[in-house]
Design goal:
Layout: H1 16-41, H2 43-50, H3 56-71, H4 74-87, H5 90-110, H6 114-117, H7 120-148, H8 156-185, H9 187-194, H10 196-214, H11 220-227, H12 235-240, H13 243-278, H14 283-297, H15 299-311, H16 313-339, H17 341-349, E1 352-355, H18 376-386, E2 391-394, E3 404-407, E4 410-413, H19 417-420, H20 424-441, E5 446-448, E6 451-454, H21 455-464, H22 472-477, E7 481-484, H23 485-490, H24 496-499, E8 504-510, E9 516-518, H25 527-545, H26 548-555, H27 561-577, H28 580-591, H29 599-615
Parallel strand pairs: 1-2
Antiparallel strand pairs: 1-3, 3-4, 5-9, 6-8, 7-8
Helix pairs in contact: 1-5, 1-7, 1-8, 1-10, 3-7, 4-5, 4-7, 4-27, 5-7, 5-10, 7-8, 7-27, 8-9, 8-14, 8-15, 8-26, 13-14, 13-16, 13-25, 13-27, 13-29, 14-25, 15-16, 15-25, 16-17, 16-25, 16-29, 26-27
């Protein structure tokens, strides 16, 4: 194998075989990340197909299992496949991982929904999702180790930086394909069955990846070690059962990957969540903005990988962490003013006050989005948080009394859902309306959608909305639609009892009388400023992530490299990073401040910065062949 003789040599260019190694490893990993991101991007459609018809408790269990499989299972995949990779070889292990990932994703596209095969559908889905998480846990370490062990010592940062582009390119690819399919089919067809198309396309991507990877040879460094009989007999025990190696893994986790993960998730995933869910920018517009920023910034991975071969891995990673710590608050505040200036202005001028009894307010950690908040304080703060309204909580109300919300001069009483019993739904609607009217008066960018109302309920609608000065006679004299009773019942405009045997009912559309909705005015959204801010956040991602593969593989000896570097990487990214959106949102809800949750990535980044600066040694110039 010609490449084996030169894998550790310095001062040489990239051979054709090495280009093939990088391309094959990177392309396969792009497809794996594409597969992984599809589930998150299409979660709403998947939930409708597999979970929606089950009782709430059952849906919550399935949602929790799906979440856990996606992120929390990844470190176990690192252990399973890391061990195999250090025992059998790099090439065959990450060939297995891509087969598992690709096939499990493809089968999601084929899997019948719960309406067809019942409870088996969500159970099989969770199993496929767990296989995805396990496979991804083994893929990255294999690809990074494989490329690094082919690279010359003085260009390892540059070579491995191509692997670092794969997660971002996978996200980019998934967004582009979803947007393309949705645009081509239309929203209704996409929701009905079109969401399966991106999953089915993964089979084509899988075929390409496997075909390319089958033509590769084993890593020269691993093959040499194996030929010399120096391989590890028990990689897990050696990597984590011996303090000299376990110490390296701990330093890699707390001094590097934990900080890298929160910067990565903040810059790509939380930025998307923040724009869409906090600032209320249109989802399709947000996806386009994120895609543009990723397209502009992805070259930074290679740039900083190359630079790490000149000045070291550690200085670039530490600089990225330091920049994130210093600038996250001003950057996200600037994002608010660029994306929704009306909301930013209202937040500056009006702050709500929630007065509640001691112990009535709880920490709203909700990673799966299925938790129900039932106390009067939690109901009030959850509603304010959902609408991005800043607030203070004052725990001075007498025990047993309902929390109140003060917005400007308006005081609104909340309710306890358990005590309300059957009246909870009606009270929730009344509370939401009262808060929304107060927020609208205070200048928050709320709009009301048109109301669809049957003739028998029109008078009640007019009476319930005196501010709108509606005229029932004028509405009846206008346009109306005659809708079959079955459709009206399905649309929840009327119940079967209220239909009283009728075959069709008159339905009026009343502008501005429907549900309230917090929005970002499309005309006021500053695309240029938003993309510029997102680009800066992506540059931070490339700084901490571009050199990370090189420093991780250089920290561990060849005999346990796959195992040793995979576990801290996936604990950092699967747990510290994967839990970031839910943790940031919960912290913001607890503080009544949409920016407060940023203390989580800042604190984790600061931890990694301090530990990294004090205890992590730079690895530039490491001879991987000598480090067995």
């Amino acid at each position: 194998m010609a490449i084996a003789a030169t894998a550790g040599d310095k001062r040489r260019g990239m051979s054709r075989e090495e280009k093939k190694v990088i391309f094959a490893s990177s392309l396969g990993t792009v497809f794996e990340w594409y597969d992984f991101y599809l589930y998150g991007s299409l979660a709403a459609f998947i939930g409708a197909a597999f979970f929606s018809q089950y009782p709430e408790a059952t849906r919550n269990i399935f949602a929790l299992l799906a979440f856990a499989a996606g992120f929390l299972v990844r470190p176990f995949g690192a252990l399973v496949f890391g061990r195999i990779g250090d025992l059998v070889g790099r090439k065959y292990t990450f060939l297995i991982t891509i087969l598992i990932m690709g096939l499990s994703t493809f089968f999601v596209g084929l899997l019948p929904g719960s309406a067809t095969i019942g409870i088996a559908a969500p159970i099989i889905l969770i199993g496929l999702r767990m296989l995805q998480g396990l496979a991804l846990g083994g893929e990255y370490g294999g690809a990074a180790t494989y490329v690094a062990e082919h690279a010359p010592d003085d260009r390892r940062g540059y070579y491995t930086s191509w692997i670092q582009t794969t997660a971002t390119l996978g996200l980019f690819l998934s967004l582009v394909i979803i947007l393309a399919v949705q645009t081509y089919l239309g929203k209704e067809a996409f929701a009905a069955w079109g969401w399966r198309v991106p999953f089915l396309l993964s089979f084509v991507l899988l075929g390409i990846s496997v075909w390319i990877r089958l033509s590769l040879n084993e890593s020269p460094t691993f093959q040499r070690m194996k030929d010399e009989g120096k391989g590890s007999k028990a990689p897990l025990t050696e990597a984590f059962g011996q303090w000299k190696n376990a110490k390296i893994a701990l330093l890699a986790l707390f001094g590097l990957t934990a900080g890298q993960a929160v910067v990565w998730y903040s810059g790509q995933f939380y930025a998307l969540f923040f724009l869409q869910n906090v600032l209320k920018v249109d989802a399709q517009a947000v996806n386009i903005m994120i895609a543009i920023s990723l397209a502009l910034g992805t070259g930074g991975f290679v740039l900083f990988g190359w630079l790490s071969d000149k000045i070291g891995r550690k200085p670039i990673i530490m600089a990225g962490l330091a920049l994130a710590i210093v600038t996250y608050f001003p950057l996200f505040k600037a994002l608010t003013w660029a994306a929704n200036p009306a909301l930013a202005t209202a937040q500056e001028n009006v702050r709500a006050t929630v007065t509640a009894a001691p112990g009535d307010c709880r920490f709203q950690f909700n990673p799966t989005g299925t938790a129900k908040f039932t106390t009067s304080c939690d109901i009030a703060t959850a509603f304010l948080t959902k609408n991005s309204v800043p607030y203070d909580v004052v725990s001075t109300a007498p025990a047993g009394t309902a929390a109140t919300i003060q917005i400007g001069e308006t005081k609104i009483e909340s309710f306890d859902a358990i005590a309300a019993g059957d009246e909870a739904k009606a009270k929730d609607a009344a509370l939401a309306k009262a808060i929304n009217l107060a927020l609208q008066d205070a200048g928050y960018p709320l709009v009301r959608e048109p109301a669809k109302v049957v003739d028998s309920k029109l008078d009640a609608l007019v009476a319930a909305n005196p501010r709108l000065n509606l005229d029932a006679a004028a509405i009846r004299a206008g346009d109306k639609a005659m809708v079959p009773v079955e459709q009206a019942i399905k649309d929840k405009l009327i119940t079967a009892e209220e239909a009283a045997g009728a075959t069709e009912v008159a339905v009026y559309s009343v502008p501005g009388a429907g549900a309230f909705k917090m929005v970002a005015d499309p005309a006021a959204v500053n695309w240029t400023a938003i993309i510029a801010i997102l680009f800066v956040l992506v540059i931070y991602v490339t700084m901490v992530y571009g050199p990370i593969a090189a420093i991780l593989v250089e920290m561990f000896p060849t005999r346990i490299r796959y195992t040793g570097m995979s576990l801290p990487y996936h604990i950092g990214n699967g747990w510290f990073g994967g839990l970031l959106p839910a943790t940031v949102f919960a912290m913001s809800a607890a503080a009544g401040d949409i920016y407060y949750g940023l203390w989580y990535p800042i604190a984790i980044s600061a931890m990694s910065l301090v530990i990294g600066m004090l205890f992590v040694k730079d690895t530039l110039g490491t001879d991987l062949h000598a480090k067995q």
